Amino acid sequence: MAYNIVTIAGSLRKDGFSLKIANALAKLAPGSLKLEVITPAGISFFNQDLEGAPPADWLAFREKLQRSNGVLFVTPEYNRSIPGALKNAIDVASRPYGKSSFLGKPVGIISNSPGPLGGVSAAKHLQTILPGISGPILQQPEIYLNGVGDAFDADGSLTKDSLKTVLQQYIDAFAAHVAKNQG
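Structure tokens predicted for ACP phosphodiesterase (183 residues):
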């Protein structure tokens, strides 16, 4: 049996590095994991006034997470944080209060950047946001991918061997984390 993992690529860009990394992870995942790669596109803005009758897109996103066995975040860094669309998706999924769709789900965090810092600030913000609304977060290995600008070919396939090695190590560790934290 494979564990179903919702893999949220935090960028809305159709050719974003986060989406390419998430798709590469789906190909590298061991047989124990099945990654469904999504983006926050189409999730309407969170507004607490709508909680009594949540929009259909909120309900669909929450149900997708609730049916999963874990969640993997792959995020770029925007202005030293996560993209607003990703934060909105987290806000939508974490409500109503006390009924977060992330509760009990093992979580992984991968940040990335074409620059030298690898999106470390974005990853740290997720590490601040998620406790209390999610399940256990994979602590080691930490992964902040830098220099990803030349890691993919024109078709979006991963071509950088050093990145492939790091992603393989991470997805294998995440698979063990998910297996360990299943109720």
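The chain has one domain: 3-181.
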